Amino acid sequence: MSKMVPLPSKSIVPERDVDKPPILETNHLGIDFGGLTAVDDLTLAVGRTEIAGLIGPNGAGKTTVFNLLTNVYQPTRGDIMLDGVSTAKKTTAQVNRMGIARTFQNIRLFNDMTVLDNVKVGLHNSIKENLACSITHLFGYRKNERKADKEAMEFLDFFNMADLANAQAGSLPYGAQRRLEIARALATHPGIILLDEPAAGMNPSETAELMENIRRIRDNFSIAVMLIEHDMNLVMNICEGICVLDHGKVIAKGTPDEIKSNPKVIEAYLGKKKEANPDAEN
Predict the structure, then answer these.
(1) What pLDDT score does 45 carry?
(2) Taking a C-beta distance cutoff of 8 angstroms, is the pair 98, 87 a contact?
(3) Cα–Cα distance measured from residue 167 to residue 183, given in angstroms and rounded to the nearest whole number
(4) DSSP H stretches of helix in the chain
(5) Burial class (CB in 10 A: 0-12, 13-18, 19+), 203
(6) Engineering a disulfide at 67: which of 55, 73, 76, 275 sits with its beta carbon 3.0 to 4.6 angstroms away?
(7) pLDDT of residue 2
(8) 154 three-class SS
């Protein structure tokens, strides 16, 4: 695991990424829903090949942050820079084309489509065809289809799922559906992929496989991964930098060792210990 070094913004990135601009930066990001502040003053940076964690108790605002980063929600204040370009006023589809992809807490696949076709949906950013070719199935269309099939199969092969290409997505076991959702997100060719509780519902062997796959994604595709996760064993063993939210505010940023021993983090998860009352009865 790479040593983490500070940036002028007081965020930290892996040492191997320090000579390159962060793939993702937020500056004083916040959003209000009516009179409720859901996220406030979020400033962070993610290195170009970092595995980053976003953690916090239930209701801390983690998924809201992912919705902000992908422009499902427009921020009330602050800004988001993706590969050095502001995402302000972009649609979710435009932000995806800029280089950010995500998965969801609840798996979102096209259950009635094949595994192969689910991945091909993710290739829409890289395959171009005009309307005439689509209607008439001319040579250019068939060439693009062959290219899409080949590339989609490469993503499936990466996850050892090539033999399931023609299976119906909805018929897959839970762990395989998770891998398929990640494969489809990778097919958009992102610079960073956001994983929202990827280990939810997994058994220990599936979680171990997921950890290995996340490392392989970072190493093989040279992209960043940012994950929301409640499995602290996974987070502490795979994340390089961790940001901790509580009630929409950042209460800590640091390495796994720093986060594990941070009193504010311990309090957020376990609650403040009551002071001993010497007059209390035993």
Answers:
(1) 95
(2) yes
(3) 15
(4) 62-69, 92-98, 115-122, 131-136, 139-158, 174-186, 204-221, 232-238, 256-260, 263-270
(5) exposed
(6) 73
(7) 73
(8) helix
Sign of CA pseudo-dihedral 22, 9, 13, 184: negative
pLDDT for 127:
58
Burial of 106 (0-12, 13-18, 19+ CB in 10 A): exposed
Alpha-carbon dihedral angle through residues 237, 240, 241, 244, given to the nearest 10 degrees: -10
What is the three-class DSSP state of 169?
A: helix
User: What pLDDT does residue 35 have?
Assistant: 87
pLDDT digits (tens, 9 = 90+) for 168-212: 999 999 999 999 999 999 999 999 999 999 999 899 999 999 999
Quote the CA–CA distance of 144 and 125 in Å, as a whole number: 13
Contacts of 232 (CB under 8 A, 6+ apart): 55
Contact at 8 Å (CB) between 51 and 229? no
**Residue where the block lists tokens 């891998």:** 179
Residues of the chain with pLDDT under 50: 130-132, 134, 274-282
164: tokens are: 């399931």
Paired residues of 252 in beta bridges = 244
User: With the CA atoms of 239, 245, 249 and 255 taken in that order, what torsion angle do they form, in degrees rounded to the nearest 10?
Assistant: -30
pTM over 0.90: no
- With 0-12 / 13-18 / 19 or more C-beta atoms within 10 angstroms meaning exposed / middle / buried, residue 17 is buried
Q: What pLDDT score does 276 carry?
A: 42
Q: What's the pLDDT at 259? A: 95
